[in-house]
Amino acid sequence: MIEPLVFLPGFMCDARLFGAQILYLSYQRAVTVAPVTTGDRIEEIASGLLDQLPHRFALGGFSMGGVVALEIVRRAPQRVSRLCLMSTDAQADTPQIAADREELIVGAKSGRLEDVMNRLIGSETLAPGLGRVPVLKEVMAMAKELGADVFERQMRALQRRPDQQGALRHIEVPTLVLCGAHDQLTPVRRHAFMAEMIPNAELKVIDEAGHLPPLEAPAAVNTALESWLNAPVRLPYL
């Protein structure tokens, strides 16, 4: 039986982030996008999702969704058949980064969500080229629809997220670590570290992408995901 695929979107993103991947991959398996907007702690979000998700599934997490994916694998390793971590980081916030988030929360709550999002996801975080403009418009459209309350909840979850570097060595499923070569928010070196820590993980760097490979280079991401999904997988625990 082909396992379903669950995507977890990133900060202030929804299913539109994975539109190209859903179209490409859903011809051979069930593809679902689960929200990461329902709590202000990573542990709470992961626990809530596990109550709703299939018994066993492939899991792909982007950015904040990757943080939640790591928590899901830590809590229920027997339910995840394979794992993809995209544009994400296993480290917790430093005290300075956590403190800096407070100003962003205040800005978003005071009606300046668009300005705050432009500070967080600007053109310099993406690969150079004309393709940056429609990608940034798509990100802003998703953020505006989710709104300031979701912004605050997700910021709080990121502030409080646990450091998961130690858990990487315990991941036993086929794992793809995917990132963009031009990503300045979660640089290639952080993904290389994760790939080194996870047993038998594969690192895939998308040359034509920055922080948002699913939108910037959908064809390359589709190819990488298809290869990952076709890799042999170990039978679940009995």
> N-to-C SSE series?
EHEHEHEHHHEHEHH
Counting H and I runs of at least 4 residues, what is the number of helices?
9
Largest sheet: 6 strands, parallel
The CATH architecture is 3-Layer(aba) Sandwich
End-to-end CA span: 17 Å
Largest beta sheet: strand ordering: 2-1-3-4-5-6
Structural class: alpha/beta
Beta fraction: 5-15%
Q: What's the total number of strands?
A: 6
In the predicted model, the low-confidence regions spanning at least 5 consecutive residues are none
What would CATH call the class?
Alpha Beta
Query: If you consult CATH, what is the topology?
Result: Rossmann fold
Task: State the CATH superfamily name.
Answer: Alpha/Beta hydrolase fold, catalytic domain
**Rg value:** 17 Å
Name the overall outline: globular
What is the mean pLDDT? 95
Helix content: 40-55%
Counting structural domains, the number is: 1
How would you describe this structure to a colleague?
- With 238 residues, the protein is an alpha/beta fold.
- It contains 9 helices and 6 strands, in the order E-H-E-H-E-H-E-H-H-H-E-H-E-H-H.
- It has a 6-stranded parallel sheet, sandwiched between helices.
- Helix 1 packs across helix 9 (218-229), helix 2 packs across helix 3 and helix 5 packs across helix 6 (132-160).
